[in-house]
């Protein structure tokens, strides 16, 4: 069975004052059945690692470079993330693909760098609204999957997140049928059927349970609703109940 995971992507949000949200989450959900992961901005990884020590909460980065070190001002490497306490790294988020022109080939190279140091790569895929309206969703998503997965990707070192670009941060979600269609197609195309498949895009406490009830949804990658312990905690509880 693929592992169930509630993953929070804090994006470029969070100051030290917000560390109380992590403390509150650990107190409210000390023993979740599902995996719980928070990917804060890199500046909060170390303090979060101190707070999360001894808890079930795992930490992750939001991107990494293809190299381990070197002259790359402003970048962060996979060994640095691991050294700061990360176990996972989000790669190929649509905001990186759009804002930084990241191709699927680059995502695969970043995933190789993550795997070299034992980080689990969470590889994000998703169609734009134009692509969905054109009826090309499955072609786009399956093409991104093929090109973003490095050789050797397995359930042990890789998680896939399906995130329709038009659903991220918009409050709009696909229908359950639309989510199921993509997740079923992804499951059939994965090199390892045990790989976890997350859905992402405006997951909230109010819609989490019905999404988690779908056969090939193993959890969620959550943006906005992961910033507050109460909201993220409700999503964790819905995943535990699924
Ligand atoms: C995301 O950024 O990965 C995401 C799913 O964001 P939101 O939950 O805010 O739509």
Provide a concise account of the structure shown.
With 242 residues, the chain is an alpha/beta fold.
List keywords for this structure.
single chain; 242 residues; alpha/beta; TIM Barrel; 8-stranded parallel β-barrel; 8 strands; 38% helix; globular; binds phosphoenolpyruvate
Strand residues, percent:
15-25%
Q: What does the main sheet amount to?
A: 8 strands, parallel, barrel
Strand order of the largest sheet: 1-2-3-4-5-6-7-8
Question: Mean pLDDT, rounded to whole units?
Answer: 97
Chemical compounds bound to the protein: phosphoenolpyruvate
> What class would the helix/strand composition place it in?
alpha/beta
Low-confidence sequence ranges:
none
Radius of gyration based on Cα positions = 17 Å
Give a structural overview.
The radius of gyration is 17 Å and the shape is globular. Helices cover 38% and strands 16% of the residues. The protein is α/β, with parallel strands linked by helices. Helix 1 packs parallel to helix 2, helix 5 packs across helix 7 and helix 7 runs parallel beside helix 8. Strands 1-2-3-4-5-6-7-8 form an 8-stranded parallel β-barrel, surrounded by 5 helices. The longest helix is centred in the C-terminal third of the chain and has 14 residues. The chain contains 10 helices and 8 strands. It has a single domain, classed as TIM Barrel. It binds phosphoenolpyruvate. Phosphoenolpyruvate binds next to strand 8.
């Amino acid at each position: 069975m693929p592992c169930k995971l509630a993953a929070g992507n804090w994006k470029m949000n969070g100051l030290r004052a917000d560390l109380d949200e992590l403390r509150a989450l650990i107190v409210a959900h000390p023993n979740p059945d599902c995996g719980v992961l928070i990917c804060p901005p890199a500046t909060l990884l170390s303090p979060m690692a101190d707070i999360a020590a001894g808890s079930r909460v795992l930490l992750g980065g939001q991107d990494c470079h293809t190299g381990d070190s070197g002259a790359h001002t402003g970048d962060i490497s996979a060994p640095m993330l691991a050294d700061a306490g990360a176990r996972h790294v989000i790669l190929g988020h649509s905001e990186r693909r759009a804002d930084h022109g990241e191709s699927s080939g680059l995502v695969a190279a970043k995933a190789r760098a993550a795997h070299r140091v034992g980080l689990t790569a969470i590889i994000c895929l998703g169609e734009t609204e134009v692509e969905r309206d054109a009826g090309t969703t499955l072609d786009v998503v399956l093409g991104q999957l093929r090109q973003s997965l490095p050789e050797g990707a397995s359930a042990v070192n890789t998680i896939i997140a399906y995130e329709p670009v038009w659903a991220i941060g918009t409050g709009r979600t696909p229908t359950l049928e639309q989510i199921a269609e993509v997740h079923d197609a992804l499951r059939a195309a994965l090199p390892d059927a045990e790989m976890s498949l997350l859905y992402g895009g405006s997951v909230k406490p109010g819609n989490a349970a019905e999404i988690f009830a779908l056969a090939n949804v193993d959890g969620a990658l959550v943006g906005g609703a992961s910033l507050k312990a109460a909201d993220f905690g409700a999503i964790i509880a819905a995943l535990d109940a699924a």
